[in-house]
Amino acid sequence: MTESSRPAPTSPASGAVLDDALLGRIRSRAAAHDAANTFPFDDVAELAAAGYLRALVPTRFGGLGLTLPQLAAEQSRLAAHAPATALAVNMHLVWTGVAKAMHDRGDTALEFVLTEAAQGAIFGFGVSEPGNDLVLFGSSTDAAPQQGGGYRFTGTKIFTSLSPVWTQLGTMGLDSSDPARPLIVWAFLDRADPGITRKDDWDTLGMRGSQSQTTLLDGASAPADRVVRTLPPGPVNDPLIFGIFATFEILLSSVYTGIAHRALELGVAAAKRRRSAKNDGRALAQDPDIRRRIAEAALLLDAVYPQIQTLARDVDTLVDHGPFWFARLAGLKHRSVESAKEVVDLMLRVNGGASYFTGDELGRLYRDVLAGLFHPSTADSAHATVATAWLGPLDD
Question: How many CB atoms lie under 10 A from the CB of residue 132?
């Protein structure tokens, strides 16, 4: 096996959940879900049956007990077979990863996520809002306090992956009942709440199977035991915020790196298959320009894999990067997405005009990889975070 055709790094045998047969079935359905703009119910059902949705849940809570580096490797493998499926389940896996990271640090506030995920609950990620570039540090959703400590949420959440199947929605809103002391409220909502509706509006360029629909909250109720944090707006040092940022950025990077690896595989196959009339019918794999593109793509990927694994390990082992934690995580997401985009673009050039047809897998990967531009941290946000880590905050 050549260096460029080797499979993406996998987790150790004890961490492997996705066997080749399962991944093959998932890949066989991906193009149809993309073409029809439908949700991969069969994929999610098979992943749940394999225990994948409880992969990060510690064994004492009924899960498989994978480490974050192991799951990151598995997510790359899944994304190489069905990017939209990987992105969809990523959001559930993020919540289990947040709960695990908090538990590892002695914070029990999200232990119910671990217990319920082991019992089959599916967690959605209801954080993004139209026009809210504050992301975790502000909200346009109203969180109205209720007697007994609960809250009612009213607002619009966008990019809610797993919309057709999530059973619990982790979300946040702004409690402005005391203008002198506004609070960001983090809580979990039950799908059965009558104040929750979803719009069937996910008709997008790529990642179509994720069905990340808009969620409308109209007084949706979270009882006191589902309110997990009330924090001041803005950056704050809290295990919940760290857990969300770390797990989201690492697993998201894994998804887009998996897309890039599949693109490289397809590019290598195209270079060996395609022939050049101007070079006496020799394979394009003998063309110096094609070889350089393949090599450039492989070099880009080789730089990303160890970054994902190292930061995932650091989260699990409670390494203290101090003020550089957020810079490293934002940087990882930015580099992995930009590298993935470049890899796919290079392989489109290797594959030639066939990629421009809608049924071509590389063409689909090109559309899917573009979604990475819109996830936090965006390029501008990542650069601002890194600049602040090195230079300090901007003057008022």
Answer: 18
CA angle 297, 267, 274 (to 5 degrees): 135
Task: Give me the number of domains the chain comprises.
Answer: 3
Q: What is the DSSP letter of 9?
A: P
**318-347: per-residue pLDDT in tens?**
999 999 999 999 999 999 999 999 999 999
Residue 273 host element (H or E): helix 239-273
Q: What one-character DSSP code corresponds to residue 222?
A: E
Residue 209 structural domain: 125-231
φ, ψ dihedrals at 44, nearest 5° = -65, -40
Amino acid found at 355: S
- CATH number at 303 reads 1.20.140.10
Task: Give the Cα separation of 85 and 188 in Å (integer).
Answer: 23
Domain end call among 89, 106, 121: 121
CA angle, 150 as apex, 144 and 155 as ends, to 5°?
Answer: 40
Is residue 119 within 8 A of residue 111, CB to CB? The reply is no
Q: Indicate if 176 and 213 belong to the same structural domain.
A: yes
Q: pLDDT for 8-23, tens place per residue?
A: 444 334 468 999 999 9
pTM: 0.94
Judging by DSSP bridges, how do beta strands 123-126 and 168-175 pair with one another?
A: parallel
The string over 244-258, giving b where at least 16 C-beta atoms fall within 10 Å of a residue's C-beta and e elsewhere, is bbbbbbbbbbbbbbb
Structure-block tokens of residue 220: 């949706």
Q: Alpha-carbon distance 91 to 73, whole Å?
A: 16
Answer yes or no: do 279 and 381 share one domain: yes
What confidence tens digit (pLDDT) does each residue in 60-113 have? 999 999 999 999 999 999 999 999 999 999 999 999 999 999 999 999 999 999
| One-letter amino acid of 118 | A
Same domain for 167 and 52, yes or no, is no
Output the six-digit token pair for 43: 């994929």
Which one is predicted more confidently, 366 or 14? 366
* DSSP, residue by residue, 141-187: SEEEE-TTS-EEEEEEEEEETTTTT-SEEEEEEEE-SSTTS-EEEEE
